[in-house]
Amino acid sequence: MSHHLVEADSVHYAYPDGTKSLQGVSFRITHGESVALVGENGAGKSTVLLHLSGCLFAAQGQIRIGEYPVCAANINAVRRSVGMVFQNSDDQLFMPTVFDDVAFGLLNMGLGKEVVEAKAAAALETVGAAHLRQRPPYRLSQGEKRAVAIAAVLAMSPDVLVLDEPSASLDPAARRRLIELLKSFQHTKIIATHDLDMALDLCSRTIVLHKGQVIADGRTEQLFQDEELLQRSCLEKPLRLQGCPVCGK
Questions:
Q1: CA 26 to chain centre
Q2: Most CB contacts within 10 A, which of 72, 167, 211, 239?
Q3: pLDDT tens per residue across span 25-42
């Protein structure tokens, strides 16, 4: 399915203050892959995601989503295919009620009231948040906000789901519910995260970024066993891959 293809070809980007964030980033992600983007703070993970969703455009090189280069002329087609969940859910939730937030994108697509009601209700049910539909977003917990933000994206039926630090600020139970939810999404997933144990749960492939460059791209478990690579990237081996501190096994 070509519309699920995600490709970066030698992408460069610098912020207005001159900070070089991406320096020749290239990768190709095909339909159904679950891919983690990992690296230290400032490695370029969030900047890559903002390019995939059309919030930023490459200064050099090109991002493609399916048949479309990511550019201003193609932004509507790109955003129909890519659904992004931001690290801070407050950046996505701004309507008076949870239901209004989930329905917002559907209404802007021009869908009828009955269709919007059905799709929004189904998305809230999927994330276990149907009981929150009349609550104002500012009265939700961080885990509830994250679930609603994901529902708002799922309601749009994206081909590619992009998430920035989805487990940040979640308690262990909310984190586990999130992981189980994301396992059920059958299309392409791209997850920027410092939570390497979650990456092991969800992503068979990992791309490691360091100072705006891809320094490794391969099977998640194999890369997470590479202690030199993790040290260079300011990362630590996931807990489940570490030996027991008592018996050493």
A1: 18
A2: 167
A3: 999 999 999 999 999 999
Sorting pLDDT into bands at 50, 70 and 90, what band is 90? confident
Distance set, CA 163 to CA 70, 137, 185, 189, 228 (Å): 18, 19, 12, 8, 27
Give the Å distances, CA to CA, from 166 to 7, 68, 96, 173, 230.
22, 27, 23, 14, 21
Across the chain, mean pLDDT equals 91
Which amino acid, 150? Answer: I
pTM score over 0.85: yes
Phi/psi of residue 67, nearest 5 degrees: -85, -5
Are 44 and 207 contacting, i.e. CB atoms less than 8 angstroms apart?
no
Percentage of residues of the chain with pLDDT beyond 90 = 73
Residues 6 or more apart whose CB falls under 8 angstroms from that of 83 comprise 153, 154, 156, 158, 160, 161, 162
Amino acid, single-letter form, for residue 28: R
Q: How many CB atoms lie within 10 A of CB 93?
A: 22
Domains recognised in the chain with CATH numbers: 2-88+159-241 (3.40.50.300)
Q: Could you write out the DSSP letters of every residue in 117-177?
A: HHHHHHHHHHTT-GGGTTS-GGGS-HHHHHHHHHHHHHTT--SEEEEESTTTT--HHHHHH
Q: Report the distance separating Cα 148 and Cα 143, nearest Å.
A: 9
Residue in 102, 103, 81 with CA at minimum distance from that of residue 149: 102
